[in-house]
Amino acid sequence: MTVYRVTEVIGTSKTSWEEAAREAIKTASLTLRDLRVAEVVEQDITLGEAGSVESFRTKLRLSFKYERPWQGEATAGAA
Q: Which of 31, 48, 57, 72 shows a CA-CA span of 20 to 30 A to 21?
């Protein structure tokens, strides 16, 4: 049986929503292993003076494989 955990991250970019998503995944992959799926939840734009586009933001829901504690499966059910 496999269990996955889901977490939300937000990436930002000066150029595009796609780059913002790539940045979020790249950064999350530094601390999360076995990333499986990235689902775009929301996209927005931050605006500056006179309505100019400052940055693109992409919110992602990332799923990754949940790992058992270090003891492993042999001791997981032991009490």
A: 48
